[in-house]
Design goal:
about 10% strand, 7-stranded mixed β-sheet, HAD-like_sf, alpha/beta, 17 helices, 7 strands, single chain, Haloacid dehalogenase, HAD_sf, Rossmann fold
Length: about 350
Amino acid sequence: MPQLNLDCEGPLTLNDNAFELCETFIPNGNKFFALISKYDDFLADVEKRPGYKAGDTLKLILPFLKAHDVTNKIMREFSKKTLKVLPEAISFLRFAQKTWPTFIISTSYRPYLEALCEISSFPMENVFCTEVDMEKIKLLPEEKKLLQKIAQEIATLPMIEIPDDAKSLSDLPAESQKVVLKLEEIFWEIIPETNAGYFLNKVNPIGGSEKAKAVKSSLSFTGLSLEETLYIGDSITDVQAFELVKEGGGGTVSFNGNRYALRAAEFYALAPQAAFHACLGVIFAKGGREALLKEATQKEFKPCKTLPETLNNWSNIAEFGQTSQENFEELVSRSETFRKNVRGEAIGALG
């Protein structure tokens, strides 16, 4: 019996909940979040800063959400109201949890995962996600004003440009280097001197190495092995989980993934719906990684006859193959374009 571990945003839902929170509650929040997300990419993938992991964007934005009066209640209500799932995601989750041990491993905040679990009847005990409590601290009036001002300053900064072969800060364009240094001052000198520094010190987003730890924790619950694990993700936060499962002989699939996911996963899938995950699960259950490898060599992806009709109706609308360095840039372009078409230009462009 295989075990399925899935990221949430991308493979199951269309949202980027953190981006949408910033866009809604912080003036110019879309530009604000996009820049911090790019800074996150730099710290995690280029500088590889010790103690920092992909997805820590979700703690970097909390001081500013707090300064704009976002509460736990607002996060819960907003997540329920705005939740958007991929076609057939609910059917897939209900099928998967009855068929295989299935876990969601997400960097997203708990209120967002609770909203998904509520409409899909998926058990929250099978979810790993980022815990957050907006009421844990109070901001002084002057701190609130300062953070609101800084948020607007961040939103006006030029976007950080990261060359594909960048290995350090000096490899970035001069203007991008200045932006990174400005953000360094904001996040590691100014904010720690405020009560909002609590979020940077105490909140631990489930991304990067924490997703790999979550995979191990899920296996301790089921008693299964990495070789029996199918992991489906789509972004930089999934890289370490991909690497762990791949090294253990399991299946790793970049689903409508970006460059980071394609670089780390052994297989890729392009599909406009989540029913495709059920097809992958059936194939993996029959023969593990080798069965995926065999399917990846086929010219056409064939529907799975053993699936419920509601899932199989969608499962032939997909592309599935093995990632490789040959024609990699062409694959990245195709996958990222597909990603943006499915999730929208702004969310699809995020790391």
